[in-house]
Amino acid sequence: MDFTIPAELDDLRRRTRAFIDEHVIPLEADPKNYDVYENIRLDLLETVRAKAKTAGLWAPQAPKEFGGMGLPMVAWAVIYEEANRSIFGPNTMNCHAPDDGNMNLLAKVGTPAQKEKWLRPVVEGRMRSAFVMTEPHPGGGSDPSMIRTRAERRNGKWVVTGRKWFISGAAEATHFILIARTSDDARRGLSAFMFHKDQPGWTFERRIGNLGPEEHGGTGELSFDGLEIPDENLLLDVGDGLRITQIRLGPARLTHCMRWLGLAKRCMEIAQDYVKEREGFGIRLADRESVQIKLGEVAHQIQIGRLLTMHAAWKFDQGARARKEVSMAKIHVADTLHLAADVAIQLNGARGYSKDTVLQWIYRWARAARLVDGASEVHKMVLARFMREEGGDFWRWDRAD
To answer: In order of start, what are the domains of the chain with their CATH numbers?
Structure first.
């Protein structure tokens, strides 16, 4: 088992870290750099994105022929972690959700014409995208088999009716990937379509307020009342919608983990810098055993998360679906991010709770981690099912043949 990374990847990691330190982290301190939803202002973002492109740090996950870096997933894990040491970092390098998940999906399953039309503009940063799956009760959420939005064949086109909500990035998206029901078949009843924001037949109902901070475009509620989609905008074949969700969501869950590890490490950086200087009752906080135990526990959990995430990324690079590995990483890293933010706030005291640092931003962001792309409880159910089906083989080692 070789846990080393190639020299060229380590060089890329160092360059990413230096870019984030020089061009991105300093932006966090000035309230004028934020939009009303507590993310980086879009006009400022474009300026920093231009710098990332010049530095050769643009879209690590996207194919080279469309303007990305074409890196394997193990390299994503290294780079995303460094990028998200800043709350703005992944956005500046075009490796932020939901775009990176949509780019990965289209790169895998799109036709050449679809990639040119729907993928290239997102990779180049000219457009944003959204993945439209989740529905209000009694529709589908973590269970896609419950999806009720329908696409019916009429006059040579697919006509969509229904409702979706909590659609990430919807208010800023131009390109949308929609999962809709095309039959009542248990396994082949869903299909995936693409549509443009300017097409008639659908309405952006509202941007749903939440605990925040929010990604660009927030989470939206959408209604469909006659949206027409031609066959050329169908992804794969009719009935492949469930397969599409699996292809997209597995890697997307793992890239969340990669980014969250960066945020967790940033929390520890802020905490360590503070406890080294802050004194109370005649002793530095860093010299108190209780503080050391807190920091050591978080460091321990972060490293476990890194190993789980890297193992899952390696499995993907070997062509595996890595369902167990992704669920393990998703559960653990989501909990670890929340722990890291909580401990850092506690050690910083009122300073951590205030907006003088980004800790409160990360803390609120962390609460969503146990919900997005499948609640932690759902992933634990997945692991229990695998354990039931595989027995002792659940813990088998991968063998080199």
So the answer is: 7-96 (1.10.540.10), 129-239 (2.40.110.10), 243-395 (1.20.140.10)
